[in-house]
Design goal:
773 residues, rod-shaped, 5-stranded antiparallel β-sheet, alpha+beta
Length: 773
């Protein structure tokens, strides 16, 4: 050591050796010391001065100074170690804390040796001191770091596993991981990755492990791990490669997400449940944001617009529903969604959409606000209901009400007009009879009668249009009726036609004459809609009561549908609602009663007539008539022998004196005896009196409706009580209910519709008075 003299060495070599030692001590941060026990003299090397915080030779080395600057916790141990070494009990070596000159704390490591005399008594100690402050600090930090890591590792809420990257065996596991899987730490450290996952899942798990090892993915979600008891747990695994004792490893953090997975499944099931509910609803349903983009839509809405769900979501509602390039309200359309965003309140609007087939449909939209936590309307729920049928039914109802009101008026007018015409026709017949030998007078009266017949046609149309025009129903072959009506209507026309009757077409219960009138009206309209040329397609088919195509508003039973389609210019939207109104026509020549009459005829048959038309696309009329399964045979007309009727006694009952007078004159003119009554009470009294006198009436002509007295039906009931063989003829200008249509059901043997002429009166009387049947 530098403090020990060696007289045997060369002085120069000694100095060089001391310099080398000093450099070595400085590099190693080690100083040496000596302590003479007898004199208490102390020696420090230059590096030891520096270790204690002094400059070399700054102070005299002092054993007491060392004890003074030593940390109290180290001083007692230091003294015990010196004492033990001097006594030879143990070698001297220890770490102690020393306060340098500047107050800084140093951790020092010292080793000493005791030198003794021949008697074994200690005479000197020598040793070295090394500054281990940095090393101890590093060791302490490492220990603290390891302790901290272990604390975090073992107390983490998530499970942590460290696995050998190559062998995939576990090297470390924390308490949470053990609790999650139900294994002890020792058990897990004997296992590997394949042991904690279901066998069928392992190929995918292995692939995920390799990808995480290559840092392609960080977190793998919703993986299954297997507990010791066999139960399965869903986890998210966040893995990262690490080195552990020079070995490549993977540290995986396992988070139990079973509750989350179950919640997601429940949410998914809930969403599927809600979706199934929404998709089972017939009304369209969408959710729209403030940019009018569709967030959600159900099956019914997609069917309404004719698009799959992937072409609806994310698109603007005005683009999908209305084929517009900007919001509906900017185009002047009523928009319930916009009104909800503006007002914050539920709104309703009605407008029309274009159906996938291009037809216009009417819809009702109802919109409801969806608010965020602050109460702001962020989205809107809108339901879209197809109300086309409802609107058509409402229009139908209003049309029926209007037609019934007008029909009542028309029937009343026709009734009164027929009574007036009856007088005119009667007197014309009498005048023709009186002027039988005057050709000019007879011809003039004939022309007057022809002119009056035009008025009769008008009243017949009014009666058919009104509730009084009850059909004379019987089972008929509709195909034959249609064929005859079409050929007659288009005879000589430049338009072509095609009739396609269904196989085994059902018969219908109908008045053949009235149905012919309906078909002819529609065919003539179709022909007039194609002034240049065109084609009319007539199709018939059977519709069962359970058929989905059966229009709403019809009674659930079997029907025959007749569709008549033309290639004309179509009907304007504003005119569609009015085409069945009486006296409405777009033609220069036309009464406006054709379609109104057709509508009433079909309605009185228990059917329905509808029309579909678009400008430029032609028009189609649909007629529905109740079907029957049996076809009655055609009634054969019996021609009675043309022999004169014998003189008879006739009773005439009418509340119009002028009709009583003209009817009496006509009956007398053809050779009969006549008595008249103003009401049922008078007629019954006259009939009873004639029976009592032995001169009964051979027939009675009874007016159906009597103001303020018994009408024809009530009067006949009384007369049957008097004379079961009474022959009564019903006469009316306004056939109420179904009396005229089914006169025999009410006890009458014939009917006379006003106005009737001499020939009509003669033929009826001839039939009932000369025909015993």
């Amino acid at each position: 050591m530098s403090g020990i003299k060696n007289p045997d060495q060369d002085k120069g070599a000694l100095l060089e050796s001391e310099r080398r030692l000093a450099r070595a001590q400085a590099i190693a941060h080690i100083g040496d010391w000596e302590w003479e026990l007898a004199t208490n003299a102390v020696y420090w090397s230059d590096e030891l001065y520096r270790i204690y915080g002094f400059e070399p030779q700054e102070i005299a080395p002092d054993y007491g100074l060392v004890l003074q600057q030593m940390h109290p916790d180290s001083k007692e141990e230091f003294l015990h170690a010196i004492d033990a070494a001097l006594k030879g009990e143990k070698s001297f070596e220890m770490d102690y804390i020393f306060f340098r000159k500047d107050g800084g704390e140093a951790i020092l490591h010292t080793i000493g040796q005791v030198f003794r005399d021949e008697s074994g008594a200690p005479v000197r100690m020598a040793g070295v001191v090394q500054d281990i402050t940095e090393r101890k600090r590093d060791e302490m930090l490492l220990r603290v770091s390891e302790d901290k890591f272990r604390t975090i590792f073992d107390n983490a809420n998530d499970g942590i596993l460290i696995a050998d990257a190559e062998k995939k065996t576990f090297l470390e596991a924390n308490r949470s991981m053990c609790a999650m899987l139900g294994y002890s730490r020792d058990e897990l450290l004997k296992m590997g990755v394949a042991d904690i996952h279901p066998e069928e899942e392992f190929p995918a798990i292995q692939n995920t492990f390799e990808r995480q090892l290559r840092r392609e993915i960080g977190v793998a979600e919703n993986l299954l791990v297997k507990r010791k008891d066999g139960a399965l747990v869903y986890v998210d695994i966040s893995s990262t490669p690490i080195n552990m004792e020079g070995k490549p490893c993977m540290m995986g953090i396992f988070r139990d997400v079973t509750d989350r997975h179950q919640a997601e499944e429940k949410l998914q099931q809930s969403e599927l449940f809600i979706r199934s509910i929404l998709d089972s609803v017939d009304e369209g349903f969408i959710v729209v944001d403030r940019d009018y983009l569709i967030i959600t839509a159900n099956r019914a809405y997609c069917e309404q617009v004719g698009l799959p769900i992937n072409q609806v979501l994310g698109k603007s509602c005005f683009e999908v529903s209305h084929k517009l390039s900007r919001p509906c309200h900017e185009e002047g359309e009523e928009c319930s969604v916009n009104r909800v965003f503006t007002s914050g309140l539920p709104q309703t609007a009605c407008h029309h959409h274009e159906a996938p087939d291009g037809e216009k449909i009417y819809v009702e939209t109802k919109a409801f606000p969806l608010r965020d936590a602050s109460g702001n309307v962020t989205r809107v729920i809108e339901t879209v209901s197809d109300i086309t049928e409802k609107r058509l039914l409402e229009e139908e109802r209003l049309k029926v009400q209007k037609l019934e009101a007008i029909g009542t008026l028309a029937g009343g007018i026709a009734h009164d007009f027929n009574n007036l015409l009856q007088s005119v026709f009667g007197y014309l017949s009498l005048a023709k009879l009186a002027s039988a030998n005057n050709d000019e007078s007879t011809a003039a009266l004939g022309e007057a009668e022809k002119a009056l017949n035009l008025s009769v046609k008008l009243t017949k149309q009014l009666l058919t249009f009104s509730k009084g025009g009850k059909p004379h129903k019987r089972s008929i072959n509709l195909g034959v009726v249609i064929d005859n009506a079409v050929r007659f209507s288009l005879s000589g026309s430049h338009n072509d036609w095609h009739i396609a009757n269904a196989e085994n077409l059902w018969p219908v219960e109908a008045d053949e004459g009235q149905i012919t009138q309906v078909i002819q009206n529609i065919i003539l309209n179709a022909s007039q809609a194609m002034p240049k040329s065109g084609k009319v397609d007539i199709t018939t088919r059977n519709i069962q009561s359970v058929d989905q195509n059966l229009p709403e508003g019809l009674e659930k039973r079997d029907y025959v549908e007749v569709s008549i389609r033309d290639e004309g210019s179509g009907i304007n939207e504003k005119d569609i609602a009015r085409i069945f109104d009486p006296y409405f026509t777009t033609k220069e020549k036309g009464s406006g009663l054709g379609l109104a009459t057709s509508y009433s005829i079909i309605k009185n048959h228990g059917g329905m007539i509808r029309v579909l038309s678009s400008p430029g696309k032609g028009t189609t009329f649909f007629v529905y008539l109740p079907a029957t399964k049996t076809l009655n045979g055609q009634k054969q007309t019996t021609h009675l022998p043309n022999k004169p009727t014998r003189l008879k006694k006739i009773l005439v009952m009418d509340d119009d004196p002028m009709i009583c007078d003209v009817a009496g004159a006509m009956l007398k003119a053809i050779g009969h005896e006549v008595e008249s009554a103003a009401n049922g009470e008078e007629a019954i009294a006259l009939y009873q009196a004639a029976l009592d006198q032995g001169s009964p009436f051979n027939a009675a002509i009874l007016d159906l409706t009597i103001r303020g007295g018994l009408g024809g039906v009530e009067t006949l009931r009384k007369l049957v009580g008097i004379d079961p063989d009474v022959k009564a003829i019903v006469s009316s200008g306004y056939a109420d209910n179904d009396v005229v249509a089914s006169y025999r059901n009410h006890g009458f043997v014939a009917f006379l519709n006003k106005p009737y002429n001499m020939d009509g009166l003669r033929n009826v009387l001839h039939e009932i008075l000369n025909n015993d049947s």
